[in-house]
């Protein structure tokens, strides 16, 4: 699933359409059924903002389009009327550029769901201390991995950044929130913020444990383990030797 850094990069790429009166089209039948094209066609795109894992496209007249990419959605920005095959979910045509959305995401004219989100890990002025404080307000018995993925607590962190940040802090996804010190939580979240911001700027970091189950940990040589986490059973990866709390998983 695209995570917060991907959404912020996408929002940056869509800025070329801000200020344009756009032509909107939904070639895919399921997208056409949402009615979003009729609602935004001919309106000026006033801003594009990433909020957690959501994109908010605000148009004149107070109309806001919320887009969630789910597992495989993506945007591409191309010259106007560039040739293509297939049926994208949404096309926004500006004066010189057009943005094309593929692969069945959420397209909704209701942005109210974003009001229940926690602070965006990449939000302007969001400090690590604020994020640690959010974790201290929830049930301290929850596993760290589950808490990091809860968008109502902190928005924008997905499975990749949860896995990698906890490995950096030597904390298992299965360790209860109460079992981690504030400085350890700050180390994990601070690392996630730095690396995600670098990703927005185009610098990609290598994975140390994500999707490396059964391979040796690059830090201690222990075996990297994997297991479904939380109600959604998102696969967590961690080192069974050097991440504290691993023994509680089995």
Describe how the helices and strands are arranged.
Layout: H1 4-13, E1 23-25, H2 29-32, H3 36-40, E2 45-51, E3 54-59, E4 63-68, E5 74-79, E6 90-93, E7 97-102, E8 106-108, H4 128-136, H5 144-149, H6 159-168, H7 182-200, E9 224-229, E10 234-239
Antiparallel strand pairs: 1-6, 2-3, 3-4, 4-8, 5-7, 6-7, 9-10
Helix pairs in contact: 1-7, 4-7, 6-7
Task: Give a verbal description of the structure.
This protein has two domains: 112 residues, MutM-like, N-terminal (N-terminal domain of MutM-like DNA repair proteins), CATH 3.20.190.10; 133 residues, Helicase, Ruva Protein, domain 3 (Orthogonal Bundle). Helix 4 crosses helix 7. Strand 3 and strand 4 form a beta hairpin. It has seven helices and ten strands. Helices cover 25% and strands 21% of the residues. By secondary structure, the chain is an alpha+beta fold.
Would you summarize the structure shown here?
The chain has 250 residues and is of the alpha+beta class.
What distinguishing features does this structure have?
2 domains; elongated; alpha+beta; four-stranded antiparallel beta sheet; N-terminal domain of MutM-like DNA repair proteins; Helicase, Ruva Protein, domain 3; 250 residues; single chain; 7 helices
Helical amount: 25-40%
End-to-end separation in angstroms reads 27 Å
The main pleated sheet reads as: 4 strands, antiparallel
Assign the CATH architecture of the largest domain.
Orthogonal Bundle
């Amino acid at each position: 699933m695209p995570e917060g850094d991907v959404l912020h990069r996408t929002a940056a790429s869509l800025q070329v359409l801000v200020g344009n009166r756009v032509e909107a089209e939904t070639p895919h039948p399921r997208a056409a059924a949402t009615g979003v094209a009729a609602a935004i066609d001919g309106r000026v795109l006033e801003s594009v903002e990433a909020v957690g894992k959501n994109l908010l496209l605000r148009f004149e007249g107070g109309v806001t389009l919320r887009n969630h990419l789910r597992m495989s959605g993506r945007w591409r920005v191309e010259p106007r009327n560039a040739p293509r095959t297939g049926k994208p979910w949404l096309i926004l045509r500006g004066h010189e550029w057009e943005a094309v959305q593929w692969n069945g995401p959420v397209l909704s004219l209701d942005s109210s769901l974003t009001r229940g989100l926690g602070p965006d890990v990449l939000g302007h002025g969001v400090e690590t201390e604020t994020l640690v404080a959010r974790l201290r307000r929830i049930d301290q018995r929850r596993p760290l991995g589950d808490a990091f993925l809860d968008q109502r607590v902190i928005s924008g962190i997905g499975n990749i950044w949860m896995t990698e940040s906890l490995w950096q802090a030597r904390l298992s996804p299965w360790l209860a929130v109460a079992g981690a010190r504030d400085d350890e939580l700050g180390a994990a979240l601070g690392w996630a913020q730095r690396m995600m911001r670098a990703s927005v700027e185009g610098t990609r970091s290598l994975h140390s444990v994500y999707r490396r189950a059964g391979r040796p940990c690059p830090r201690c040589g222990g075996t990297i383990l994997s297991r479904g986490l939380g109600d959604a059973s998102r696969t967590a990866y961690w080192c069974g030797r050097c991440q504290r709390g691993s023994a509680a998983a089995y």
